[in-house]
């Protein structure tokens, strides 16, 4: 069994979320709740956030200690909170996630900032890291190792697993201090494989490297294969390039490397600055997710097979050609004709899907003239909906507001926000107003339709919280799953 040489051994670790198995749902939910709370004194904010955590599905009977731990993990690890002068509010990272519901973009930005040492660990451990001269950005290093391995491997195929990553990267000071280059680590991995070296695969040992590798999967940078291997998604994306180019570390820690007798109390002085760094200093680190790349990873994922073309939950289409493949084929065809798939052209990815769906729906029922009149309403008009369509061959309008989320896995949290303008339009339009909730992942594309959300609110079929607009929580009886028509 391989052992990192004792003189180079130092185990990196970080706060681990108790909600990792549902981290995407939790982050969407908590970003929205944190933004809804606004700025409050620290104690008041913590109490309010605890109440929101208790309301997350499955948490009603959790003990206060567990809820407190959730709050700490969310703030320390994921940078959703901003702290200053005794007050807490949503960070820019949280606000962006709450507004765009783009989890892939969130994880890419998060990984670009994530480093050891960092404020996501206890100050005493951060001090240990600094004493050991650790300066390490794991996501960038893993990408470089995989690129170097591809250059060395037959047919350019190279992978890493949690065991190798733990022993040869996370636990080795030669790597985390910057003494070993990524190509040297790739060579070491290949050498150990040739020698059939065994590595400790115990979950407690590999959990920290495994967390970061899994977050890279959620960022749509790595693919995870059933045999436990992680590999780069084909074609180095802009997101990976962005992570590689962000080489700056948290500057306030730098003077501490020269300080003798460093202790936890000194490190604690930089807590507020860390929160600002992790959650607010994200300029040039946000890359909107390209829906085509998400669907490409769906097509290339070795886990997908014909036997898996079954509903992931009610509302998914089933057939010889799933809706994900239909959309992917359509986008590829559009690109082959020289067209661009861009926010400027079709709104967001969800609007693109709904425009195509509504045109096809009307055409299939013979309403060809109405199909021709389906259109995207320019954002600057501020009318409170995105798309004008029609119910059928009559002139009965469907005013559609599209709410889209993009994630790696299928989301279960049923929540979105209507702006003041959108809620006013919903009130004024009544029976003509629809919300199309589009969920895009590399496992499915699905659509949940809520007709007349104001009426649904009045009949207690949706829960609404008034703030800067309306925060809507819905459930199965709030609407209907609609099969998307994209071919």
Task: Explain the overall architecture.
The protein has 487 residues and is of the alpha+beta class. The protein has two domains: 274 residues, Orthogonal Bundle (Arc Repressor Mutant, subunit A), CATH 1.10.10.2090; 191 residues, no CATH class. The chain is built from 21 helices and 15 strands. Strands 7-8-9-11-12-15 form a six-stranded mixed β-sheet. A three-stranded antiparallel β-sheet has the order 1-3-2. β5 and β6 form a beta hairpin. The chain starts with 22 loop residues before the first helix and ends in a 6-residue tail after the last strand. About 5% of the residues have low confidence.
Please name the CATH topology of the largest domain: Arc Repressor Mutant, subunit A
Oligomeric state of shown chains:
single chain
What is the CATH C level class of the largest domain, in words?
A: Mainly Alpha
Largest sheet: 6 strands, mixed
Give the topology, please.
Blueprint: H1 23-37, E1 40-41, H2 42-55, H3 64-78, E2 81-84, E3 87-90, H4 92-100, H5 103-113, H6 123-131, H7 138-152, E4 160-161, H8 162-170, H9 173-176, H10 182-194, H11 203-218, E5 222-224, E6 229-232, H12 238-245, H13 264-268, H14 271-279, H15 291-300, H16 323-336, H17 343-346, H18 349-364, H19 368-372, E7 375-376, E8 387-390, E9 397-406, E10 415-418, H20 420-429, E11 433-440, E12 445-451, H21 453-458, E13 462-467, E14 469-474, E15 480-481
Parallel strand pairs: 9-11
Antiparallel strand pairs: 1-3, 2-3, 4-6, 5-6, 7-8, 8-9, 10-14, 11-12, 12-15, 13-14
Helix pairs in contact: 1-2, 1-4, 2-3, 4-5, 5-11, 5-12, 7-10, 8-11, 15-16
